[in-house]
Specification:
Elements lengths: L9 H31 L1 H4 L2 H23 L5 H12 L11
């Protein structure tokens, strides 16, 4: 029986592994910031039980796309490619500098 769908490329698998590691840290930061907000804002601290539960759910959900966005930026390949495009000569100048 053949698996359905496309196989994951090596680049996507690496990005997913990095994203999982970043997800844990991002989730912790979002949760901590949310709890501090709930506990320091008097209007929210009155119903802290509800709002902390909302912060937990929100941090679980928001941490995944944020980690997926950060993951390629944690690879050296991203920064080498970006540095190469920043140093590329400009199209209109003979020397590439102003």
């Amino acid at each position: 029986m053949e698996p359905k769908g496309l196989p994951m490329t090596r680049e996507t698998a690496t990005r997913a592994q990095i994203a999982v590691l970043i997800y844990l840290m991002t989730n912790g930061v979002l949760f901590g910031a949310g709890v501090i907000l709930v506990l320091t804002w008097p209007a929210l601290s009155a119903d802290a039980g509800f709002w902390i539960a909302a912060v937990v759910a929100t941090s679980f959900i928001l941490a995944a796309p944020i980690a997926w966005w950060i993951a390629p930026r944690m690879q050296a390949r991203y920064w080498r490619r970006r540095a190469a495009t920043d140093r590329a000569p400009l199209a209109g100048s003979a020397t590439g500098q102003f």
